[in-house]
Each structure stands twice: as C-alpha cells, then as structure tokens.
Amino acid sequence: MAVPNNILQQVQTYQMSGLAYLQNLCCFVSIANTKFKNFQDLEANLGDTVTFDLPPRFNTAASLVATFQSAEQRVENLTVNKAANVSYAFTAQQFIFNVEDYMEKFGKAAIEELATEVESDIATVCETAPYRFYGDGVTQINTFGQLANALAMFRNYGAAKDKVRVVLSDIAQSNIVNSGLNQFAPSRNDEMAMSWEVGRFNNADFYISNLLPLHTAGRVGNNATTLTVVSVNKNASDEVTSIVFSGAGASDADAVKQHDRFQFNDGVAGQPDLRYRTFIRHKVSQNPVQFRATADAASTPAGQVTVSIYPPLKASSGKTQNINHEIAAGMQVSVLPNHRAGLIYSGDALYVGMPRLPEEVPFPTANQVDEDTGVSMRQYFGSLFGQNERGMIHDVIWGKTLVPEYSMAFIFPE
C-alpha cells in the first residue's frame, strides 16, 4: 500500500501545479463565466447539460389600454460535449533511473498541451456564436480609433454595461499600441510603453490570444462576390429564416460555408438601407443588418444559393422584431472572406463548464477544482499487471457556450 499512497501524493502535487499553469496561460478559460449553479462542483459525464435563463423579452404598446402578451422564459443550454487527455508511460527501470526526479516537468508539459486543446476549443465561440461583427477581413485592425468604433457599434445595438471584454489577435495588439504611442496621451502612453498592452480602454478590458479561430469562407466570400436577394423563406412567426440569393456562380459546391458572415449593403438603387433595431424596445439603431450562415450551401446551375441564417430577421412588430424594413428582392449583401475571429462581449455571457470526473477506482486519482476559474482536471496513475509498464493520464471534459446577442465578432485578416 505504501507505493500507491506515495504515488497519490505526487499526483495531487502535479494536479495543483497544472491548474495554475492552465489559468495563467489561457485567456478564454480565465475570463469565462464558470460559476452558475455550482456546475464546477458536480460530477458529470459527456453529454450532461445545464440550462440557464436569459432575460425575457416584451413589446411596448403606445396606449393605456393593455393588451396582455405572453410571458416567455428564454433559456440557453451548456452541454459538456468535449473530452481530451494526455497520457504517457514508463517501465520501472526508466522511472527509477531516469524519470522520477523529472516527473514535475513531464506533468507541466502535459498540462500545457491539454490546456491549449481546451483553450483553442473554447476560442471557437468567436466563429460560431456572434452574428454581428466589426471588420471586413481585409482591412487591418491597428488603431485605437477602430477599437472605439467597434465598441460604439457593439453598444449601439444594446449591450450589458458590465464586464465588457475584448479579445484581440496578439499580432494586432502590437500594431494598435504602436499607433497609440503617436498620440498625445502622456499618462496612457507611459503605461502602454511599459507593458506594450492595450489593457483597459473605453470602459472595456482587453485581452490577447494567439489561438483565435481561422474561418475558411466559401467561394462567394473569397471572390468578393455581391449577392442579390431573390426571395425569402419565413417561419410561422413571420421571421426570415433563409434567403435565396442570385450571383453565386453556377453549380458551386463551396459557394457558402457554415459561419460565413454577411452584411446588407447600403446605397442599393431603389432599396432602403437595412438597420438592426435595438435589442430592447426595438428602436432603429445605426448597426447594419448582419447575419451568419448556419450551414454550408451549394449554388444551383443558375447561380442561386439558399442560405439558412441566424438570427431570424423580422420587420413586423412583436417581441422579436429586429430590422427596420422587410427584406425584398433586389437588396444586396457582401460576404466576408477568410479571416480570424476575435471577440467583444459583455455581461459575463461566455460560459464554460468543466465538471469533476469520477475517480478511476482502483487507480490512485486526484481530481481538483480551482476555485477562481472553475477549471477541473483529473489525473490518475496505474500499472499494467505483470507487464513492467506504468502510465500517467491527465484528462478533462468540458462544454462552452456564448450567448449570441451579448457578443460581436472582431474580424482580423487571416
């Protein structure tokens, strides 16, 4: 029994060290909301789901005569659907003569690899969740003016005022700081010159990542093709859920890819300029109407392509009204090319769940939660009976979700 107890003590030491390593290196993990309903304290399996509420939506009537509307609870799901592990093994001779004193290094290296896997997966929410965006995928983001404009557009639509966070490309941050040093802002510039970081600006906290997802666009976006609306498809709530466009090129299987981002163009002859309405009270904002494709779409021999969209777009009155004019034939859209997607969000709307994994009985197991981040990892050790092989496994399960209306993608050229 002495050996298992001794091994278990070592596992616990590595576990705590590994948590600190993950917390320090990973931007998305460290800023994500992991605290609701004590999900980090639960034992769970792949596929387990926790549900949390979103603020209800209502519509205002310009009258003292009340017309009662239905009260609808809005919910979002966080499903633990990801798993990863790092494992390694040694013979008894290797462990005793070459490895035992070096095990802390192996443990840290394994956690670094596992951390990057988790972090890069969480970062994909930048590509898959927001439907609004700032940037065109061609113009570099390299000035404080662009940061201010992006935050203004983010708030103009309606945004939670607390915990506004921006995740930039690490390369873009250097150019932004360099441009800021040319401005006359002595106090700010002294601090930036010392850290070479944006830090806090315009009531938002800035972070950087070298793991921002790269979106590979369809041929329409990469060819800078302008699409023209032919017709729309609506659901029972009078919301546009897909749009038929012309101009995509004949019989192109790669015309549109899932998560391609679209924007209605201004100044089209005979057509009004489309604008989003504010999320609360549905007033016309200055945000152009943008959306993302929810699935790949191929074009027909005639060059038409039907794009399923998010969010549904509705011009008629009601709780989900979000645009100022009906989408009509002849309106035009542009599509972003390949790009890297950063993020603006507020209100702690990025959720990550990493519940505890069960002990791997009869193997010595350590399973520890970091109380600051909610990160939970398991590490266990075992020997293959009679085969002179002993192995160490670090593993984790997790899920993530970003509430779309609380976020905007920050678009950087690839």
In short, what is this structure?
With 414 residues, this protein is an alpha+beta fold.
SSE order and pairing:
Layout: H1 2-25, H2 27-31, E1 49-54, E2 74-79, E3 82-90, H3 92-99, H4 103-123, H5 125-128, E4 133-134, H6 144-156, E5 165-169, H7 170-180, H8 186-195, E6 200-201, E7 204-209, E8 214-215, H9 219-222, E9 227-234, E10 240-246, E11 261-264, E12 275-277, E13 284-288, E14 290-293, E15 305-313, E16 332-335, E17 339-345, E18 350-353, E19 365-369, E20 376-384, E21 389-402, E22 407-413
Parallel strand pairs: 4-22, 5-7
Antiparallel strand pairs: 1-2, 3-21, 5-17, 6-7, 8-17, 9-10, 9-16, 10-15, 11-14, 11-16, 12-13, 14-15, 17-22, 18-21, 19-20, 20-21
Helix pairs in contact: 1-4
Parts with pLDDT < 50 across at least 5 consecutive residues: 1-10
- What's the average pLDDT? 84
Gyration radius over CA? 25 Å
In one word, what is the shape?
Answer: globular
Largest sheet: 7 strands, mixed
N- and C-termini, Cα separation: 55 Å
As a percent range, the share of helical residues equals: 10-25%
Class computed from helices, strands and strand pairing: alpha+beta
Counting H and I runs of at least 4 residues, what is the number of helices? Answer: 9
Q: Would you count the extended β strands for me? A: 22
Percentage of residues in strands: 25-35%
What is the domain tally? 2
Explain what this protein looks like in three dimensions.
This protein is of the alpha+beta class and 414 residues long. The chain has 2 domains: 2-126 and 349-409; 219-337, Beta Barrel (Elongation Factor Tu (Ef-tu), domain 3). 24% of the residues lie in helices and 31% in strands. It contains 9 helices and 22 strands. The strands form 5 sheets. Strands 4, 5, 6, 7, 8, 17 and 22 form a 7-stranded mixed beta sheet that branches. The chain has a 6-stranded antiparallel barrel with strand order 9-10-15-14-11-16. Strands 3, 18, 19, 20 and 21 form a 5-stranded antiparallel beta sheet that branches. A hairpin with a 2-residue loop joins β6 (200-201) and β7. α1 packs across α4 (103-123). The radius of gyration is 25 Å and the shape is globular. The model is unreliable at 1-10 (pLDDT under 50).
